[in-house]
Design goal:
The protein is 32% helix and 28% strand. A three-stranded antiparallel β-sheet has the order 2-1-3, covered by helices on one side.
């Protein structure tokens, strides 16, 4: 079984990496980009029978800083 976890900064949390990407895109001539949010994608190869609840526990304990980040699990 595979699971994909997408981790993003929560709304309202400053994203300096996203802002740097937005600025760089403008410098390269890509006008019209008003905002960029940068996150991470984690792909997990899981043993058969691993539950989504177990993946959620992985996110809560290690994969996401739930104070400033949110996450989405896709299987």
């Amino acid at each position: 079984m595979k699971a994909r976890v997408t981790v993003m900064l929560k709304e309202g949390v400053l994203d300096p990496q996203g802002e740097a990407v937005r600025h760089a895109l403008g410098a390269l001539g890509f006008d019209g980009v008003e905002g960029v949010r940068q996150g991470k994608v984690i792909e997990l190869d899981l043993a058969e029978g691993t539950t989504e609840e177990r993946v959620r526990e992985m996110c809560e304990r290690l994969l996401a800083n739930t104070v400033i980040e949110s996450y989405r699990i896709e299987s």
